[in-house]
Structure formats: C-alpha cells, structure tokens
Amino acid sequence: MDIFEQGKRIMRKDGNMKQWTGGYPTEEIIKKDIENGNSYVCLDEEQNIVGTFAFIQGNDPTYVQIHDGEWIDDIRPYGVIHRLASTENSKGIASACLQWCYRQIPNLRADTHRDNHILQYILKKHGFQYCGIIYLLNGDERLAFQKL
C-alpha cells in the first residue's frame, strides 16, 4: 500500500489532484487483485519491490462502450493494465510493466485520468493510441488507449 501512496505523491507533484482520491485503491481492491492472480510487482536488483500493477486478461466491463472514438481492435482477446504505481525514487517501472504485459498478450488496453499526463505520455511513447472515452462503474470519465 506504501507504493500506492508514493504513486499518489508522484501524481500530486505533477498536478494530478483528482485521481486516486477517497482512499483508492483500497486494501480490499488490492487483496482481490492478489486473490484473482492479477497483482504483480516489479523488483529492483536487490529484490526490493519498486512497483506494482494489476494485469487482467479478458473483457473489462467498463470497456464495452467507448465514446467519442473506437477501439483499434474490438474482436481479439486483450489484456488490461490497472493500478500501476511505483516508488518515488525508481525509474523505468512503467516501461518495464508495459513491455512485460505486451509479451503476455500483444493486444493491450489501459485507461487513465485526464490529468494523468505522465501516464498518457508513457502510453503514447510505448505505441498506445488514444481511442476515446470510457466510464468507470462509478461514472467517472477516463481516457482509453490501446496497443496492438
């Protein structure tokens, strides 16, 4: 959970004040990721955990409808990256995560808050294309990306 707190601090320093508020992600959500086999960690050379993310292969209910755009491929199976966070002092965690996920299934989707300019930049740098807007189950808007 400390890594998620560090991730929040990174976002706040970059001006992203609205994402991951209200206690999100909760310990309950993270435990569910672990129980479902969808929680992963990134280790440094000394085997310290420096990053974490959820990677889920299969349909995401929030991706069924996309607004103001369309998915590049809406037929083939895909993997989804959620809750990506790293320690404040680590570098390259998002890149390592995206590369690892792409090796698992070469059709990836991700979404992020409009104010998360860091992740938008990283996604585009790694070949993700902006596809449109999706809405989370609570109604919050997210920018949706896909890489084939």
UniProtKB/TrEMBL annotation:
Organism: Bacteroides clarus YIT 12056
Protein name (Swiss-Prot/TrEMBL): Acetyltransferase, GNAT family
